[in-house]
């Protein structure tokens, strides 16, 4: 199978994915996790053949439930969203106009965009939009980006947080972004960093606790259902190959104050306690858990 980003056929085999029992027709031995030898993109080989209806079932049934966010984490996320919208406005050279959130989930970003003067459009294959947003003037499309068929040069900003790692054909999505984005418009994307220090440690733990054949990074068949994996090199490669100019590419995450987010002395508390020093070390090593980029047309 060719790499979804650069087209290279040579890849390093990394191991087998874990399988979700909800889909017994998918057999573990039919799939491997590989890394492209040219652009370092991580993907499943062969391509996963789940239908859109099956993906919808996954995301509507348990994607948000598996998050199990505490009140503190919800407040932290809201603060992060506010800072991201502020950052977008700082870099934008266009008048405030139409704002698309692809993979809008419950609609928190749409709400913040609306409060900042944008005309918000939300898109998601699953309908988890907060019902309180129905009467706010937000445009919501339940389906995929290509079904929405937005006009050329339509949006001044496209926002996509933790979505590209779920997309079967990420390069086609970026190409569509280019078509529907206004000249000098901005795209804001966040994806997990597969080359993070914590992922390196998790790989060692998987080897010790499971077996060497299992690969513990991207998880196509168990939450959070990541079928692609990016690092700084592959993300930048994909962006530039689609004609965009990178404005900023940064890393963050992995060093949250977990003692506010976890019940004290719980199992998850001690697990986060063990990982916290790694999160701090990952900062000077440039191996944090998330990649955040802004790029323009």
TrEMBL record:
SUPFAM superfamilies: S-adenosyl-L-methionine-dependent methyltransferases. Signal peptide: none annotated. Gene3D superfamilies: Vaccinia Virus protein VP39 (3.40.50.150). It holds the Pfam family Methyltransf_23. It comes from the Bacteria. One of its GO terms (biological process) is methylation. This is Putative methyltransferase. The lineage of its organism: Bacteria, Pseudomonadati, Planctomycetota, Candidatus Brocadiia, Candidatus Brocadiales.
